[in-house]
């Protein structure tokens, strides 16, 4: 009996040893070999394999993050020049001759107009960008003739054709469309999105011919809509009786002030970005909030600019109780980003007014982007004498603060001191300062000795960190401002 028991234990130990050795052998394999195994598997099998262990998962992430500029065998690049071998058709034949070898990525730079749309009729993801802008009038993209299995489409610097839409088939797999500086008019855009029943993400940036985007909100599966710097878009009017259901959960806007502006009443937004390059007129501030920030109960991420902050201040002045009710419900907000086009004491007061009156009880991350160029207007203004700071309890859960474009001017330093004093749960206050190599507290003018001690203590214990370059963490809406 004892022998049988010992034998069973030995068998278990042997099994464990074999498993351990197997794990060791996997970890000792070269990454290129493991990557080759994964890339020869069907996609679903490769994903399942990556879930078996941390090592396979690491290799799978390496595969996904592979630099397009490297010499990876599953990534090919080709520069197609006019009147040279191979022609577009010959290039496709060469790719097909690879047989079972599956490409992860193929990059094609075209320096000829002798290429038909049919060359792309088997693409899953297509990015078309015009680099020679002198030829813009001759580059037209015929969307209805694109690949029917297309999943992602990105166009930049070209125009979209207005023809071939009659009796065109749906693009049932197309989920993402990104248009950057594309010549397209309203009705063509609507025809385009109407052919994409699965469309979930639509980005419209620098599209100067667009003006009326209200009907975009009718797309039944659209989840994320970005409108950035489209100069002719002046209003967004979406009325309740026109839109009984709205699937949009993320709306990002940057550009001129929109009026009238009506987000769908039935929209339940989880993240919202509103950034105006001009001030909101005081006489319409209340109505604007009624139409835009009427339902913030489900918001988890919010990005606003100093022009919106100033409108909040006008609503929250002493005695304006109705204004407080409009902006006081951010119960689920976890991330807040403030884009400051100027930073004076008036703007600092606007930040304080928002944090004091807009009740963000679970706010964890706060990003402040200061202006890159200093305003010619004086820092001292009507609000410079007395700026009331919010109480400590409004920041009780704040853990991370990141201030971009930081400089040692008085207003920026006051903002840093405010967070150090009032955010008791703060773990890190990150200052991104491209022009400052070291923060010398003794060189900062016009602050009290107690404030100097607070800054020195935060630097010593690692809570206050100075970085020359932008680094993690990044706000959710950072891509909206990346190239604008």
From TrEMBL:
Domain At1g61320/AtMIF1 LRR: 136-433
One Pfam family named in its UniProt record: LRR_At1g61320_AtMIF1
InterPro entries reported for this sequence: At1g61320/At1g61330-like, F-box-like_dom_sf, F-box_dom, LRR_At1g61320_AtMIF1, LRR_dom_sf
Domain F-box: 27-62
Superkingdom of this protein's organism: Eukaryota
PANTHER family linked: FBD DOMAIN-CONTAINING PROTEIN, OS02G0105600 PROTEIN
Name of this protein: FBD domain-containing protein
UniProt source species: Brachypodium distachyon (Purple false brome)
